Structures are given as structure tokens and as C-alpha cells.
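Problem statement: downstream parser choked on a complex file, so we are re-checking the raw output for the adenine run. The parser issue turned out to be on our end (a line-ending mismatch), but while we're here, posting the original submission so the record is complete.
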Amino acid sequence: MQIDILTLFPEMFDGVLSASMIGRARANGLLDIRVHNIRDYTDNKHKKADDYPFGGGAGLVMMVQPIYDCMDAVLEGGNARRILLTPRGRTLNQKIARELSCEDRLVLLCGHYEGVDERVMNIIDDEISIGDYVLTGGELPAMVLLDCVSRLIPGVLGSEESAADESFSDDLLEYPQYTRPANFRGMEVPEILLNGHHAKIQAWRQEQARLKTALNRPDLLREDTDKGETIEAPDDAWL
Ligand code: ADE
């Protein structure tokens, strides 16, 4: 997959693009990520990319011209799904991430300041937010989107299983996990995980996932609740 990022702060991406799974996926040729500085496309001598809003009001608005020219240059290499990161967008979730992971090419436009000139919407396919809070810009949201979409691309994760058997893959949060030692400062790993009985372990994990979800994110179980099912955590639940 090719992902082009349009930003006023390209240096913010350095660490994320070179480290961990994304760094490895780029080295392996699974991900082709290119970061473009919108300021390089300004047509004024001060390289100004933002200006005061018509009609007044606080803050600066990102100008339409540099964004259009940057997008034109980037799309010369072929069409792509163009996404603006903005708190105004639909909220990113695992389903949207899965959908985006099937695209050949994404362009991520990072909004900044008080927003972008509304005419930019004419060259945008989708507006995405990463949650109901306001950040200083779309760079961190672009990194979040990049990370959660990339790990769904076959080959990016070490084992295909880890993408399938996890929080949200079946609308449940992930069950508790343990590794050695079996006893740490008196805290024991649940006996069932040590006895190797596969079916019992699966059943335990499923139950724990449901309990965790009921406690932390009951909204994810709403469909079950509508069917009249209620879930109560037993006293000995590993939550
Ligand atoms: N820009 C600022 N806040 C944002 C958010 N929550 N999601 C996406 N883009 C943003």
C-alpha cells in the first residue's frame, strides 16, 4: 500500500516511520509511505500556508492554494482515497480501519490551526476523527490511522493470528494475557492457563473477554443487551 501524508510538520513523522512494525514493513516493501510538506507548495515568497478567516474569528485557517497544489502533485502518481484528519470527521474504528486497509493508496491530509479552507472539501473523499477531543493538528491522528491500518495489511504483523484474535475483531475487548513467571510477588497466573487444556482455555478466554467488555465498554454489547442478556462479573473475575 502507498500512503502519502500532506502536512506542515513532516518532521513529526520521523520516529513513527522508522521504528517497529511500520519501519520493518517499509523496509520489506509492504508499505510505501511518503511525507510531503505543504509549505513547499505555497506560491508566496514568505511560504505562508495559513491566513485569517474571512468574517473574523480567532485563529488561522489553512489556505486552499498550497493544499490543492500539493494534492495535484501527489496525485500525478495515480488516484487515491483522500482523507482529511479532523475532529469533525466520522470516528475511526476497527471496521473503518479494515475497510481502508483494502485500498491500494491513501492520501492523509493533516489539518492544523482552526481548520482548513472549506473549499478543500472538494478534493477530499472522507473526513476522519480519532475521537471526541481536540488535538493541535491532524499529525498524531494520521499516525494513529497509519498504524492501525498498516497492521491489517497481510505480512505487516509477524503472525496473521495476532490481527485476528484481538480486541474488536469480534466486538469484544481482549482477554487477559500472562507470560512467565507463573508466580510474581505472590500474584498467580490463573490455573486454567497452566494446564494446557485447549478447549477449556478457549472458553475461559471468551468469558473473560465478555466480562472485560461488559465492565469497560458495555456499549459494545448493546446488541446482546437488546436481546435481554445481562452479564454480571463474578467475584473472582480476572478483570
Ligand atoms: N485534529 C485535531 N483533533 C483531531 C481529532 N480528534 N481527530 C482527527 N483530527 C484532529
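For whoever reads this later: The chain has eight helices and nine strands.
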